[in-house]
Amino acid sequence: MNDQKDPRAVPAEPRRLRHVRLEGVRKQALETGRNRLLVTGVVFALAFTVIAGRLVGLTVLDPGGEPAIARTIQEPPVDRADILDRNGVILATSLPTASLYADPRDIADAEDVADRLVRVLPELKHSLVVAKLRAKNRFVWIKRNLTPKQQYAVNRLGLPGLFFQPTARRAYPHGRSAAHILGLTDVDGHGIAGIEQQFDGLLRGGDSLRLSIDVRVQAVLREELLSAMREFSAVGAAGVVLDANSGETLAMVSLPDFDPNRPFTARGRAGFNRATKGVYEMGSTFKLFTTAMALDSGTVNLRDRYDATKPLRVSRFTIADYHGKNRWLSVPEILVYSSNIGAARMALDVGTRDQRAYLRGLGLLRPAVIELPEVATPLMPARWRNINTMTIAYGHGIAVTPVQVTDAVATLVNGGIRHPATVLKRSPADRGRGQRVLSARTSEQMRRLMRLVVRRGTGRKAETPGYRIGGKTGTAEKQSGGQYRTDALVSSFVGAFPMDRPRYVVMALLDEPRGIARTNDYATGGWVAAPLVGRVVRRMAPLVGIPPAVDDEEPLLPGRSMLASLNTAPAKARGRRLAAH
């Protein structure tokens, strides 16, 4: 066979496709499917159009449509800076948290939602939650600063209309230890007390703050004050530890205190800072200032004596000694034996004008300049008469704060230079700045006298071997209804150490202590406050780098003339006649 094609052959025409025409059921099914697709497409298009329109309306055409608070809560929480102690230990910091809020318009059943919330957040009040969820607002807070566990529990409920807002919570790692110094913030992170309030703008700006406080010394002081307050059933207590040469506050405690992590505990007496806000008649601690001004002004010398054989009677007032010696007393004896009579006579010789000038220079007539908002104004006579000069000489008739007394005693022992108390850590350049109030010679004499008070006088129970403490006791009756109460005392002791070269001043005060069997029912400063300061010194000294002395030598033991003045005949009798007053 010949398989070749004939080139002259005409190609066949292509086959035409035939149109298929559907009839009946098949045609109806196709039309139905086509209509459904069309309707579905239209529905999706309309849905996206509505969503897009809503977004445009909220963000462009009507930006003020939502309540202002709803926009505000979307801002990130303020980053409040840390507060540190002098060694860099964190005293206050901010932790990220979440806060729960609701949009009541999205709450379908307020009762049901409240039921579920209260189950996982039992601290919430059911009726209050229901009221919030039925509010007409677009935004209501349900609970601020949830813990991660609480946030997880709420989130598991899956309830519509509830939302979380990132927030920050202030945390105080040391709890009550430095509560009155640090203070508090409110739920919005604004300082409302203490350092938090005083430096609110700085902390909110993100700048950390370093205090002069040593958290170790702070803990020691608080523990000892709390122990003594409980032992003697006192209604309150206060204490201060001050750097004698810079005015830096290493510790400041007021009891009762509060936990700044639980702000509600600051209500009532617990929120009151007795160290800077409480004003007290300090009693015999003021004899330190009377003696210093008398020596510094040249009114007396250490060998002068005053008649303390019997009480002073001035008009309707009587000034007597507690366990008086009933004899003439030298200037050192007036301080060592805490003679009201001798101090009153000595102050009268100094004179009202000079007394006020010295007390003003020591910072006792104006509010303390310490960097806390809770600072009290001293109470003093409106008209300063001779009788006021005499009673103020032994700490009655004038009321000041514990921090003021501590600051003034630092001036007495550091060479006579006043460095106002501060809770901020000072630079080396600032530490040397101060104002001279007393001569260096007067300061040296006062150091000797204060050491003598602890060695031989009312402050013996403050003696701590190896640390050469010097100081002065104070016991004052409290006033009530214009009358002094013998059953309500303010008992204190203020001391410095080591007295050959003082570095720190420590003060402790107990408000209305009660005597116990161990103290022979006495509740005076020498029995309840002096030993407390001795314990604080013994515990804090190693922490601040002061080892105990290894020998018994007293570099600042009072000289022979001072010791001899306690027993020898008077070199000069001093004291103005009082008949004319």
CATH topology of the largest domain: Beta-lactamase
Percentage of residues in helical conformation: 25-40%
Rounded to an integer in angstroms, the radius of gyration calculated over CA atoms is 39 Å
Strand fraction? 15-25%
CATH superfamily of the largest domain: DD-peptidase/beta-lactamase superfamily
Q: Determine the structural class based on helices, strands and strand pairing.
A: alpha+beta
Biggest sheet architecture: 5 strands, mixed
Number of domains: 2
- Treating each run of at least 4 consecutive H or I residues as one helix, how many helices? 20
Euclidean distance between termini CA atoms: 165 Å
CATH class placement of the largest domain: Alpha Beta
Low-pLDDT segments, ≥5 res = 1-5, 60-74, 577-581
Structural shape: elongated
Residue-averaged pLDDT, rounded? 87
Number of strands: 19
> Which architecture of the largest domain per CATH?
3-Layer(aba) Sandwich
